[in-house]
Amino acid sequence: MESHLGLLFVLGIGVLGGTIGALLFQKLKVPQVVGYIGIGLLIGDTGFGIVPSDQIAQFKQLNLFALGIIGFLVGGELSGDIFRKYGKQFMGILMGEGLAAFILVGIASGLVIYFVVHNTAAAVAAGIVFGAIASATDPASTIDVLWEYRSRGILTTAIIAIVALDDALAMTLYGLGTSAAGMLMGENASFAAAFMKLSVELFGSILLGGVAGLLLNWILRHIHHSDKVLTFSLGMLLLVIAFATRMNMDVILATMTMGVLLINVAPQRSKKLFEVVKQFSGPIYVIFFVLVGARLSLGSMPSWLWWIAGLYVLFRTIGKMFGAWLGAKMSHADKVVCKYTGMGLFAQGGVAVGLSIMASQHLGNLKVGPLTLGDIIIFTVTATTLAVQIAGPPAVKLAIKLADEIGRDINEEDILNANKVSDVIKGTPVTIPEHAPVADILKIFSDTSEMVLPVIKADGRLAGQISLQNLKNLFARTDCWEWLVAADVMQPATEVLKADQTLASSLELMREVGVEQILVMDESGQKTCGILDSRTVRQWLEKELIRRQTAVVAA
């Protein structure tokens, strides 16, 4: 029971503390993900040690779930149209930034290792592994910043595509690099066997995600209850993550393939699914990044490892910046893509940490002076992850700000909050005098599409309202149509709107009251100036959303 309470405590302090940290950092104009990681640092071994490392290790499955959701949502951003239009540019940038970081970090870290231990094989082996890990970019924190600042445009599209594909490139370089490192350090290893194993893992991940995507698409086609969509989708995601983990495949690549297939095979059907999963994933993201920060422990690093860490960050940054620029330039990408893509690729997180843990297991017996190569990799990647996770998200924000893409991912909520009731209602509403007989009222309703109409006094002020629902009981009683008047059958207009209210608050009130139409009052609050129809708002909203998104793309 004690351990369960401990886990619940970690979840509670992680979600609550992370949310508070995010709000504080947002006040300082810093991306919220830095606040999550900062709270993690405070509660972990680097800070006050509130959450011990053995408890953090128990959340491995939750971390995999978070990475799986990230991969799935990233895949949902990659439609076939994007790759048909920009595929060549994306591949050029990917190879440029990945290989440049690999080469520069590999040379720099290898030289430091050589000057410390004077062992050429150990230096080359360490350089290869460090270079491979440096090529990875953290998709989680990068995508989180893009979503937080509602970014949209060619640079945003390029960054999303690169961080999605970077995982496969980093795994390829890592798999070949660790195999080469093992052979250099005297391990009996076959390069061909390592390449074959890597190919099976990568293509197996793609196959697993593709099959799962097709199966989920088939399920969604036969589900007509929206409340079941999230349940089936999360169940399928959990199964894919479990199979990928069990068969040593890449979780992000498998779930990303699943998302890519869905968005391209059934774009309309899956659009709502991605929105629901994104809303559900909020608390999971928070605890994931808090645990990333809590896992970072830097107290036991030898002083010379700080040199490796510093050079790693420096040359990885140069490699990402220069490589992305060169790849974009050679593939004739847009100016903003050439100038700013590298800034959006600084973040390093779950993928790099995962590769360093794998490296420590594969190379844990290889001695480099007083330490093993695995220990050196773990220590260095931990330190550099802290540095680039703090600097990376602000760099992503700066990149999309310089490219003028912040706030351009316009959605329905933005439009509803930015527009007023007066922007939708048109013309003067039909009114009913309070002394009009029911026969005349029925004639008025038959000539209009409205379901509710205002009843007015002789001076034009609002007296009440009549709806078709009020009149239903009178349909069979034709004998009273001539002597019953509007004042006899009307109801008080207790719930009305003002013309200057936002559409968002107006629709919320209509949902609470349970009506499709509601009276709108003028500035005086005494006379009606229109009727708001929720169906009309929805039609207007769809057209306005298309118009604004088209304007953003054209700009």
Describe this structure in words.
It is a single chain. This protein is mainly α and 555 residues long. The chain has two domains: 61-281 and 288-409, Na+/H+ antiporter like fold; 415-554, CBS-domain (Roll), CATH 3.10.580. 69% of the residues lie in helices and 5% in strands. It is built from 23 helices and eight strands. The strands form three sheets. Strands 3-4-5 form a three-stranded mixed β-sheet. Strands 6-7-8 form a three-stranded mixed β-sheet. Strand 7 (517-521) and strand 8 form a beta hairpin. The longest helix has 38 residues, at 80-117. The protein is elongated and about 110 Å long. Mean pLDDT is 79; it is low at 1-5.
Write the layout of secondary structure elements.
Layout: H1 2-27, H2 32-43, H3 53-57, H4 60-75, H5 80-117, H6 120-134, H7 139-148, H8 154-184, H9 191-221, H10 226-246, H11 251-265, H12 267-280, H13 282-295, H14 303-330, H15 335-340, H16 350-362, E1 367-368, E2 371-372, H17 373-402, H18 412-418, E3 432-433, H19 438-446, E4 452-456, E5 462-467, H20 468-471, H21 486-489, E6 497-498, H22 503-513, E7 517-521, E8 528-533, H23 534-554
Parallel strand pairs: 3-4, 6-7
Antiparallel strand pairs: 1-2, 4-5, 7-8
